[in-house]
Amino acid sequence: MNPDLKKIGCSEVLEQLGQYLDEDAREELCRAIEEHLARCHDCQIYVDTVKKTIILYQSDKGLELPFTANARLQTAMAREYGGSGGGGTSD
Question: Does any domain span residue 1?
C-alpha cells in the first residue's frame, strides 16, 4: 500500500467509476481506486459487474436468454417492481 496515495471510500469509488473506467482517466485516481478495490470486496463486485455490463453493451452480438431464465427474470422483476409476474412480455 502506497502511503502517499489518498485513501478513498466506497462512495467516492462509485462517484468516480466513470473516470476510472475511462482509459484517459487520471493516473492517481486509478491507483487510489485500485488500492480501495484491493481491500473492498463489495466494490470489487460492483466494478466488475459494471465492466461486464459495458462489455456486453458494446458487443455486436445479441444476448438471448433461455426461456426458463427469461421467465424467472420476468417473475423476479414483477415481484420487485409490483408487476403481474406472468413471465410473458408485453410486446
Answer: no
